[in-house]
Amino acid sequence: MNLFSFTTFFAQTGKDLGKYAGDIAGKWNSGDYEGGLFFAGFIKWLLSTTEVNSAIPFAGTVNGLMTSLSADGSIFPELGALLITIGVVFGFVNVFAIGAVWSERKVSAHMQCRLGPMEVGPHGLLQTVADGLKLLTKEDIIPRLADKPLFALAPAIVFAGVLMRFVPLPFGDKLIASDLDLGLFFVAAVGAVEVLGVIMAGWASNNKWSLFGTIRTATQMVSYEIPIGIAFVTVILCCGSFSLMEIVNQQGGMLEEFKTTNPCQGWIWHWHLFRNPFMPILAIVYFIASLAECKRAPFDLPEAESELVSGFHTEYTGMRFALFFLAEYAAMYLVAAVAVVIFLGGWWSGIYYLDVVGMGEEDGFLVKTAGVLIKVGVFLSKAFALVFVQMWIRWTLPRIRLDQMMYVCWKVLLPISLLCFVGSCLWELVSGGASVFGFGIVVK
Amino acid sequence: MNEAKIRTEEMLLNMGPQHPSTHGVFRVVVRTDGELVLESESHIGYLHRCFEKCAEGNNYLQVVPYTDRMDYLCAMMNNWGYAAAVEKLAGIEVPERAEYIRVIVAELNRVASHLLAFGTYGLDIGAITPFLYAFRDRERILKIFEKLCGQRLNYSYVRVGGVTFDMTEEILADIEAFCDYFDPKILDEYDNLLSYNGIFISRTANVGVIPAELAISYGVTGPSLRGSGVQRDLRRDAPYGIYDRLEFDVPVGSGEMGQLGDCWDRYMVRMREMRESIRLVRQAVKDIPEGPFCDKKAYRAVKPKAGEVYKRVEGARGEVGFYIVSDGTNIPYRVKARAPSFCNISILDKLTSLSDVMIADLVAIIGSLDIVLGEVDR
Amino acid sequence: MNIFKVARSIWIGMGITMKYFLNHKKTLCTIQYPKEKDLIPARHRGIHYLETEKCVMCWKCSDICPVDCIYIEGVRGADGPLQGGYRGQKATLSKFTVDYTVCIFCGLCEEPCPPKCIWLGPEFDYHSTDRTMMEKNLLTDEVYTEGDEVFVEWARGENDRLQEEKKKQKEAEKAAKEAEKAAAAAAEAEEEGSDAEGESAE
Lengths: 444, 378, 202
Prior knowledge:
The complex is a heterotrimer. Chain A has 15 helices and 2 strands. By secondary structure, chain A is mostly helical. Chain A has a domain at 146-443. A two-stranded antiparallel ribbon of chain A has the order 1-2. In chain A, helix 4 (79-111) crosses helix 14 (365-394), helix 5 packs across helix 12 (318-342) and helix 11 (278-293) runs antiparallel to helix 15 (402-431). The longest helix of chain A has 33 residues, at 79-111. The N and C termini of chain A lie far apart (53 Å). In chain A, 45% of the residues are buried. In chain B, strand 2 and strand 3 (36-43) form a beta hairpin. Chain B has a 4-stranded antiparallel β-sheet with strand order 1-2-3-9. Chain B has a 3-stranded antiparallel β-sheet with strand order 6-7-8. The model of chain B has no long low-confidence stretch (mean pLDDT 89). Chain C has helices at residues 3-22, 60-64, 146-201, and strands at residues 48-50, 70-76, 86-87, 91-99, 118-120, 135-137, 142-143. In chain C, strands 2, 3, 4, 6 and 7 form a 5-stranded antiparallel β-sheet that branches. Chain C has a two-stranded antiparallel sheet with strand order 1-5. In chain C, strand 3 (86-87) and strand 4 form a beta hairpin. The radius of gyration of chain C is 34 Å and the shape is rod-shaped. The chains are: A mainly alpha, B alpha+beta, C alpha+beta. Chains in contact: A-B, A-C, B-C. Chains B and C meet through helix 2, helix 5, helix 6 and helix 7 of B and helix 1 of C.
């Protein structure tokens, strides 16, 4: 479409949105803010569950500043908290990507009898920073016959798709951007945006090899969402809730009613991994399917380095490529963290005495902070261990061919996951929610 | 392929001279229906360096560095083929120690070449780590060669009348140490890591099956031919040097993991050949006699009588042949080199029409044929 | 290929990489190049070196070179009239260079040398940013510069001039000798004539 119609479209949309926002704000002001999905209504709905400001000391100050700055002080009372939340999540993703790239290079180097980056910074710690700076200063090349709007938009959509999935993901006890009631469902559904971005990238590159990468990606990512979805459904069935915090809390052995009054009673056998004999199989199915979702080896056909130089992101340079790269590492962390949440106990370490630190009512600020830090540490170490396993698999195994990949998905993983689903249902019916060891307390 | 006849669902894809998996500057124009290859057309000649023309202007000794650079991965065998051809033409006798040294370096070079084939094949299939391990071991061999003759890749070591430098005790000790390090442990590790890996087997078994008659009719030789079950090895069937005194087996494909003559068979023939080569090296190192390492007068003034000769040796990729025509002077009239990779790669276009080949399989087939473009184009 | 065999083979493969990962200090096989360097063996074929005093200017190394990258100019004889240049025991060299954009490091030039004065040394990291800097002057062990080229051209001119002089001198000597001979013959003829005259007078 030409520039004129583009502008008028946006102007009209802007006017419509403004009017809609006004309506929503009006509704919110009068206390009626259900269903609003734009501007004030959405933000307020999001903020009604934000609890980061309880763990971060400066949120209150920023919050007060923002409140005093806004016109009537009623529309954005917790904007500060929102900004801090976004900053934390985005910052974590970036810092993790930097660390993950470095550790991937080091892990691969040590497995291959060599040293990896050693020049920039001690043991090459600043190598990724140097690489990032290099990518920032690169010339922005768009192929002449490429579809420019799609080409430019694709990395943003991929990165946004991955970043959105971080919204309901916890980092520790009550450290979550937004404890959505539809947490797990949101994670699965929003991930489809990433597929769209990848398809756009491959198509807009005007390159037959990129097109190959795209076609492979489209089939792969969409197919492997099914076993993942079935794994999610099984866990949701056993827990009775989509919310990720709820799922983790149940692995702490906490009863719904006593969540705020009693300390946890969680030991390692309360984890969903040991809940019934089908769960370990399901966990492995989920892990394999998540490797395919992240386009990691052995499922890295979309970016098969030895066949299609880089697959769908061959034509991308500079910061556009960096966005794809960041998205890949963010997705790696995401699937690992989701696996930790739904199978491996989240932030519960499995040792009762460690979990109980800071949970009591009369504990001082230091002990509470220590408890929070322990939980964050436990969660992150489990997630990083799974990310290490992903790297380990990548550097060991060769690549699967396209038809074999489809065979694995539809004829191996899907039947196994369905069997596990049915088996879990029966187990829940028969055992009434007892775990494998027969004496865990996992109650809906 | 006439472009006007191409249907719009088909795609004309250019696996161009610059591609990560074509093992050199090799171009394949592929007509595909999605991922399925319907027809392929190979184009070579991107690495042609006029070796045969250069040989017509240089005397017999000056041609030796050119033969190195044909198949640069097994240069010793190329040198040996050329030297053996000139020796046959001029009637030069080679001292026994030189023959033993030739066997040692040729077999070590075969191991090095197969290691590279193994590493890069893993890389084509997607396993990056075996490549690094293969190069670590290849580095040890190249260090031995550097001690021996001063270069790591283009040796010009085996010359008419013998070899250039003598093999000292230190180098023999190094070679024995390498054999002890390499033979059972490392090769078993490679088998566990890649050869018997389920994903690798599913990528290479039943892919690119070359029936034995087809291979013979296209002139395929070397491990690619032996992978199809044909018992043919020049070291045993037409022995040269001292191969008739040494004991070794010739591994042949047997359809262990799929059909006979698939990529896995060819790959496994190479892995097993490495063990046999180490066996040969051990025998030669044990029995090497004392004596002169070269007939110096002969190679300083090589001037064969007028005539022609064709001599072939078993290179790492197949039969390396040299056809030399002499007119009585010290400059050859014509040197023709028969390169095994040239004949091996000619079967690619036939394979794509023979069975269902996907793009990923095409990469696997080219890797399993183990071509070196320096040899294909000379 | 049933699923258990595949899983088992994958597990074994992962065990191998984990073993390397845990023992990475012992299995390390690379060195940090510019800081740590490897031992170069004695027979390594790198950049050429020449022992100028021994060179007899036989041109054998230049002839055997398959790619013709050795350029030699000079005068045979150490006590020749050419001023400047590098006086060895047997020859005075004005130019001895190897062009490294052409050299293939085959080592064929080492053997035919009668006094064994050219050899390939251990240096392999010879590099430059410019193609004109890739010719090494073996007489100075430095890059072959324009100053050297000027000297070589002067030496050529000087050589030619000296050859011309020598030729003229030789011709002059020959002419002088001829003149002497002619004078001697004429003197003899006169003597004979006078003897004959003397005889006829008596």
